[in-house]
Amino acid sequence: MNNHEKKLILFIYPGYESLGIEYLSSYLKKSNYSTELIFDPVLFDEPGFLKIPLLANIMDKSDLIADLVVKKSPLLIAISATTDNWNWVQKLSKKIKTKKNIPIIVGGIHTTAATEICLQDPNIDFVCIGEGEYPLVELCNSLANKSPFNKINNIAYKKNEKIIKGEILPPISLDSLPILPDKELFYSKYPFFKEGYIISTSRGCPYHCTYCNNPMYKQLYKGIGKYYRKRSISHTIQELICAKEKYTPRHIKFLDESFNADPLWLKDFLKEYKFYINLPFYCFVFPDLIDETLLKLLKDAGCYKIQFGFQTSNSNIRKNILLRNSKNSAVQNLINLAKSNKIFTVSDTIIGIPGISKTDLYETAKFYNNHTPDHIEIFWLRFYPKTTILQQARKLNVISEEDYIKYENQIIFKGNSIDGDKISFFDRQMAVFLTTIPFIPKFINKIIIDYKLVKFFPIIPSILLIILKRLLRNTKYDLIQTQTYKRYLYFLFNKFEDYKP
To answer: What class has domain 190-488?
Structure first.
């Protein structure tokens, strides 16, 4: 009997369902470990959705979570970190370590981008760099068997004040993943996650957008394998058949960063999907790779919503600063085709891009008024560690050398933007206007644009702007928002019974 038989690995995750954790759990169970999830609902503490510090402090359950961790006494605690939730990771890790010295590993985008900085936290024992399926099992084996270890692939830790890093493994073949990830980790306790089934047919993205983490991963795997990979059609359909039979979801959400990056693959897939699955779905697409034939295939297979990045109507900025070599005409064509096929459209727009002027923002508004999607999603530009746009902002003197170092080390949060002092009143006014364009008659929008009247718009506090954006979104077309509302109702009315040790 192995020393690690049925040892518990405890995952902690905030806010949403995590496909990555579900795959990690599947691999651990395959290796004869047991896994559990402690889910932190982080009510009123979600930057970009709903952040109200006073209510967040009242609803904070980190002490209860830490007590529950101690009671369960796992072999290892595994936490996934983005830069946005890094403060949450540090706070929770400290509370756990204060009560009991249980090993903690943190993985995800932030630990990959800022490995050394993460390991400066004395409460974090290990970090994972890149993919974690095989490395996590190897680390658990070493801990369970109490065997000495020096270097574990994709794992970094501190020993005698020195950081030890294992070799980076090549990216795994996606068809080696289990047919069904461990959905029970989330579904068994929290029924609101069953509303829709999330799945990805790929990892990574073939593009090089400067504000995204994908270029960092491509650099990490340079020379050892391609970061952008697709699953086979048969492997993906097998999962969906099993999911449809086991969970009876109402609809599907494809998490691929660009669902149509391989149009030939997608066309073949959609035929299989319609025959075997035939459930409503939505996805993210790259506008330049959509034509009328593909759009009709998407619609015929059950697609009811597409989301895409536009960011700005200034094609020079988009090409040279964002490295998105796409055309305005492609976005215009996509919106028109989607409307004629009754597919709901969401267009992403970024405010705060280096080099963007007020005139550019008015031109973006003009484009949207002429070619109006069903919803316009506004994002403030965020400078994340190891992103190309952070380097560009430094060269253009958009940020100081001091701020550059801070951004490389950790995110700077001030309200709804990363650095509120650098988001102007006009930016905030334009955010309100862009958000409301689909709901205001075109002739009124035209007057506002032609006479530059956005300067008279009210300055809406960040929290109110977020609420406005959510109220304007049609929840029929937004699985994540629907689940979020149900999560709030679930935890507000169930009084956190799950967290009593």
So the answer is: alpha beta
